[in-house]
Amino acid sequence: MISRRLIQVAQFGAVGLTGYCVGHVKNKNNLVDNSLEIDGKIIQHMPGLPIFGTVSAATPYTESGSTRVSQIMKYGFPGMDNIRSYDDFVLSYDRRNRVPHWVFEHLTKQHIEKNDQVDRSKCDFTPDESIHPFFRSQNSDYKGSGFDRGHMAAAGNHRLAQKHVEQTFYLTNMAPQVGEGFNRHSWNRLEKHVRKLTKVYDNVYCCTGPLYLPRKETDGKWYIKYQVIGANTVAVPTHFYKVVVGEALDGSLDMEAYVMPNQKIPDETPISSFMVPPETIEKAAGLLFFDKIHKSKLCKINGRKVK
Asked: Which helix (DSSP H) or strand (DSSP E) does residue 84 occupy?
């Protein structure tokens, strides 16, 4: 069962379920039998081969992955589903919900320092063409929805190069977030808190993602309900999590874990009120975070010494 603390956070708010739409692919009469039209492009279907293939900034993870991937994922992968590696962060993409399962970052002081060569205003939200068109989210899904395109890997965490910050604007790194009172305020404060941890620790490892938590209805039963937006039915998470590990120069490790409801939160609400035991997030998300770190190696969890 989900712990009482996480259920309390879940009860902070929930989102409703709206209409569901599905896209479709159809053959044209003037096409040969083994051809399809997808997003206006004619694609030939060869037996034994996938019907879609392309190249973009994201690269599927391989065991011989780059040194940077090894640095980011030093303490283990939460899961191995549809992993994409960018230049400065790694994510697992949820093709059904069109949002990430999780996004992993490794931060240092250098990553967050002001860099005159980096200009966020030049970045555009862009679909990632390395994802099959059946499973992509599009900017049109967010238009008129009332939700922000919420970064999982925060743009402010990747200031080493313009390309790094631009890659955080791929829609694979986004999930629908309430704007006023959440994405632009409370969630932003949590992102700033994570950046401030680089003043305390030499290395900060951050895993971020969505949750879909249950809510007790009037009939006394528990249900998981969430809204979807756009023609591609992008899921609107009920909550979001961050699990953070700070690594000091002497190798000592501390962990913090947060769950925040995807709704307007009063400005005076302290970030610490959203701390939860990390194992409750693991159970709710179906993921194991930092599984290469034995609990005995952690000095503190959520500011309390580990016994």
From this structure: strand 83-85
- The catalytically annotated residue of 101, 106, 111, 151 is 151
Encode pLDDT of 31-82 as tens digits: 444 444 444 444 444 433 333 333 345 666 554 446 999 999 999 999 999 9
Annotated binding-site residues read: 183
Compute the distance between CA of residue 240 and CA of residue 41 in angstroms, rounded to an integer. Answer: 36
Catalytic residue check, 151: yes
Looking up tokens 């694979």, which residue turns up? 172
User: CA–CA separation, 208 vs 247, rounded Å?
Assistant: 18
Q: Which residue has the tokens 């392309």?
A: 54
Is the alpha carbon torsion for 131, 133, 137, 138 positive or negative? positive
What pTM, to 2 d.p., does this model score? Answer: 0.82
Buried b (16+ CB within 10 A) or exposed e, 160-177: bebebbbbbbbbbbbbbb
The tens digit of pLDDT for each residue in 122-172 reads 999 999 999 999 999 999 999 999 999 999 999 999 999 999 999 999 999
